[in-house]
Design a protein that fits this description.
heterodimer, A: mainly beta, 4-stranded antiparallel sheet, 13 strands, B: 161 residues, mainly alpha, two-stranded antiparallel sheet, 7 helices, 3 strands, 4% strand, flat, transcription (chain A), DNA-directed RNA polymerase (chain A), DNA-directed RNA polymerase II subunit (chain A), RNA polymerase B (chain B)
Chain lengths: 171, 161
């Protein structure tokens, strides 16, 4: 799910950047640090606007200054149980790897729709269903997220398509 | 000696928040949500504005590389957003607002992203709606009408593109 959220970030700046254009330096630093990053909870897809930059505070002993920046960003956070559309990246004997934007989702072959079989000899390698549908690289599928694992800088999900209405996405 | 009882509940890990039959999404329940179409429109607008401003400030500036996750999300939205046009997205939002009484923001946005074809599909894709229908908070017919109306706008959008 995408969210619009107000966030806060503290940035420390080296004295050599102090000057008339310090605001630009701070903004650039914020974009470089935060945009496209993931903190293990959500992805910050895009920073929409910056609406406040605090006055700087010099840290005793170092000379660098601390600024608190308030900004608004588009976040993307997956939830357990949420239904999402993804694109299949590769088919393996163990299951299917898909991508929903930056998030990689693994669907085990036990959780594919009923009756799907692995065809290692087909090009591209695919899973084919009883009614002739195939899941292969590039197929759009609808997946329910079963679980999430978070890393310091990334998120991983496992999903299933075995329930009704899940599987190959409707056009 | 026994420890004193903790004065607050242990925080829930963010990966444990669930959108199952009970919507337990913690602090995110209060945040404004975006469906795929709205996210795409806002993202494109933001990037366009930024690019234009950069050009105005420094016409000779080169395009800087965009972060990988931003590019991936933009491509994802380009593929899966249903309502590409601002007008269509607003129509869809209006339909959901009219029929979607007793729905959380999360559920409304999920409906707008997934555009289920009927009440049964909606309940399968969004389990919390199923519970609300069972509890009588949402009428099955209202949900059906909502889905039919949304599907109509989707077809219109597909014809237009």
């Amino acid at each position: 799910m995408f969210f619009l959220r107000y966030l806060e970030r503290e940035i420390s700046i080296h004295p050599s950047f102090f000057g008339a254009n310090i605001q630009d330096v701070l903004k650039q630093q914020l974009y470089a640090d935060m945009e496209g990053s993931c903190n293990g909870e959500y992805y910050i897809v895009c920073i929409m606007d910056i609406y406040n930059i605090s006055a700087g505070k010099v840290v005793p002993g170092t000379g660098s200054a601390f600024f608190t920046i308030l900004y608004r960003a588009i976040l993307w956070k997956p939830f357990k149980g949420e239904a999402i559309d993804c694109v299949v990246d590769s088919c393996k004997p163990q299951g299917v790897f898909c991508y929903a934007g930056p998030l990689s989702v693994f669907v085990s072959k036990m959780h594919l729709p009923h009756g799907y079989k692995y065809n290692p000899d087909a090009t591209p390698v695919n899973y084919s269903g009883p009614d002739g549908d195939t899941i292969e690289r590039g197929t759009a599928v609808r997946v329910q997220i079963l679980g999430l694992r978070s890393d310091v800088t990334n998120l991983f999900a496992i999903g299933k398509m075995s329930a009704g209405w899940f599987g190959i996405a409707p056009v | 000696m026994a420890h004193a009882a903790p004065s607050r509940d242990a925080p829930v890990s963010s990966t444990e928040l669930t959108a199952g039959r009970e919507l337990q999404i913690g602090e995110y329940a209060e945040e404004p949500t975006l469906n795929l179409s709205e996210a795409r429109i806002i993202l494109t607008k933001t990037l366009e504005t930024r690019k234009r401003r950069k050009q105005e400030e420094n016409p000779n500036s080169m395009d800087t590389a965009e972060p990988e996750n931003l590019v991936k999300t933009r491509d994802y939205l380009e593929i899966f957003s249903v309502f590409k046009d601002l007008g269509e997205a607003q129509q869809a939002e209006a339909v959901i607002n009219v029929h979607g009484t007793n729905m959380e923001r999360f559920e409304r946005s999920q409906l707008g992203s997934l555009v289920p074809s009927g009440a049964d599909e909606a309940k399968a894709l969004i389990p919390s709606l199923e519970k609300k229908v069972e509890d009588g908070l949402i009428e099955e017919e209202t949900l059906e009408t909502l889905c039919v109306e949304l599907t109509k706008i989707k077809r219109q959008a597909q014809l237009g593109s």
